[in-house]
Design brief:
The structure is a single chain. It contains three helices and no strands. The chain is an all-alpha fold. The two termini are 34 Å apart.
Length: 81
């Protein structure tokens, strides 16, 4: 049942995306929330200027992706061994 349920979910997701006219609009809220996560991380008390908060949040986002890449590389290396 588990595999069938997962497959049905993937099929439904593909069908939904196939009917989506504006992909950017559909994911806009999620992108805003993702960025807000880093803004809150670097300025939890809201003391920074908008420009400084944005700059620091961008660096925090890049660090997040670098950590993911490092973790992925380590996992691939471990799997290859």
């Amino acid at each position: 049942m588990g595999a069938d349920h997962a497959a049905a979910g993937r099929i439904g997701a593909h069908e939904s995306w196939a009917r989506t006219e504006d992909r950017t609009a559909r994911t806009a809220n999620a992108r805003r929330a993702f960025i807000a996560r880093f803004e809150l991380e670097v300025d939890p008390e809201g003391r920074l200027s908008d420009a400084e908060r944005t700059l620091r949040a961008e660096h925090a986002r890049k660090a997040y992706y670098q950590r993911l890449a490092l973790k992925s590389a380590r996992a691939r290396k471990a799997k290859a061994s």
